[in-house]
Automatic annotation (TrEMBL):
Cellular component terms (Gene Ontology): cytoplasm
Similarity comment: Belongs to the class-II aminoacyl-tRNA synthetase family. Phe-tRNA synthetase alpha subunit type 1 subfamily.
Name of the featured protein: Phenylalanine--tRNA ligase alpha subunit
Pfam families membership: Phe_tRNA-synt_N (PF02912), tRNA-synt_2d (PF01409)
Entry note: cofactor: Binds 2 magnesium ions per tetramer.
Keyword Ribosomal protein listed: no
UniProt main location, coarse: cytoplasm
Gene source species: Sphingobacterium cellulitidis
UniProt keyword annotation of Aminoacyl-tRNA synthetase present: yes
Top-level taxonomic group: Bacteria
Keywords of the record: Aminoacyl-tRNA synthetase, ATP-binding, Cytoplasm, Ligase, Magnesium, Metal-binding, Nucleotide-binding, Protein biosynthesis
Enzyme class: ligase
PROSITE patterns named among the record's database cross-references: AA_TRNA_LIGASE_II
Domain Aminoacyl-transfer RNA synthetases class-II family profile: residue ranges: 111-340
Length: 346
């Protein structure tokens, strides 16, 4: 009987839970093709009495809907899965490869590396210290008087530890000199790059953190001539043979005598521009002979040994090299800025 068949097949379709695309295809071949069950049922429908037709017409149409919808849902499910599987498992091997962007080195890292390499060739080794320092290493051992203005809240970030002791964020890399000398015996010949902190309002020309490179050379009979010769060599290596150098007397608590070193402006070659404030010269570092008090504070015999030290800001050197005029660019991580520098090839 037609009614029984429809009931039986309806149950079969309702229980249909395919687990592969092949099962969905088998369903189609069984029910929906031109010699399939659905077609047969419609053929059989033609043969029943008109009374039965009135009842069965509706039942048969509902069955047709059920079969078609079941097939549609099932084939959609498997066609989605297939797409996913293809992409994950093999992919379309004819598609072009997906490009990914390479990172680039930060300009400060590039310049730091360049500076370190120059001094390495002169026999300097790289040393590092702590960014959170105690007063001794950042100030006292370096001959800062207790009332020295650099200790003031204006310049220094202070940190109170749980045990009540006060620490500072190092205000310069000169603290690494102290750590190095305390821990070893002369001769010392080291270059010390690192981040330093000062309590400054952030602007194009100042930042609350920046980077320095410290140099220290301690041995018997080290003289100011050695200091000058080393720094002359450094400047010519970094900025070229034509760069002029001059020293101006200065003051640092930890060096005596002390000097600041200027170079002829690398942008205008000394003619005068905005970068050198129309003077033709730019200051790039502070330096001097290590004060005997500092040597003694670090357990080094100042009667036997002497030394020189220098410290420079990496940002300043980088600005002069790449004509960067706003310090904030270094820490904002704007890819439009960063991607202009050397790409790192791994
Ligand atoms: N520490 C000094 C500064 O931060 C620089 C310096 C280092 C000067 C070593 C002399 C010797 O300005």
């Amino acid at each position: 009987m037609l009614q029984d068949k429809i009931t039986q097949y309806t149950e079969e379709i309702k229980a249909f839970a395919p687990s592969s695309a092949q099962e969905v295809e088998a369903f189609r071949l069984k029910f929906l093709v031109s010699k399939g069950i659905l077609k047969n049922l419609f053929e059989e429908f033609k043969t029943v009495s008109s009374d039965e037709k009135r009842v069965l017409g509706k039942v048969l149409n509902e069955f047709k809907q059920l079969a078609e919808n079941t097939f549609k849902d099932a084939s959609e499910k498997f066609s989605n899965q297939n797409e996913g599987q293809t992409a994950n498992a093999e992919g379309d091997l004819t598609l072009p490869g997906q490009g990914f962007s390479l990172g680039s080195r930060h300009p400060l890292s590039l310049v730091r590396k360049e500076i370190v390499e120059i001094f390495k060739k002169l026999g300097f080794v790289v040393a590092e210290g702590n960014e959170i320092e105690d007063d001794w290493h950042n100030f006292s051992a370096l001959n800062f008087a207790p009332e020295h203005p650099a200790r003031d809240m204006q310049d220094t970030f202070f940190i109170k530890k749980q045990d009540g002791n006060e620490m500072v964020l190092r205000t310069h890399t000169s603290s690494v000199q102290v750590r190095l000398m305390e821990a070893g015996k002369p001769p010392f010949r080291a270059i010390m790059p690192g981040r330093v902190y000062r309590n400054e309002a952030i602007s194009a020309r100042a930042h609350c953190f920046f980077h320095q490179i410290e140099g220290l050379y301690v041995d018997e009979n080290v003289s100011f001539a050695d200091l000058k010769q080393t720094l002359y060599h450094f400047v010519k290596e970094l900025y070229g043979e034509d760069t002029k150098v001059r020293f101006r007397p200065s003051y640092f608590p930890f060096t005596e005598p002390s000097a600041e070193m200027d170079i002829s402006c690398t942008i205008c070659k000394g003619a005068g521009c905005q970068m050198c404030k129309y003077s033709g010269w730019v200051e790039i570092l502070g330096c001097g002979m290590v004060d005997p008090n500092v040597l003694d504070n670090c357990g080094i015999d100042s009667k036997k040994y002497s030394g020189f030290a220098f410290g420079m800001g990496i940002e300043r050197i980088t600005n002069l090299k790449y004509e960067i005029r706003d310090l904030r660019l270094f820490s904002e991580n704007d890819v439009r800025f960063l991607s202009q520098f050397e790409t790192e090839i791994i």
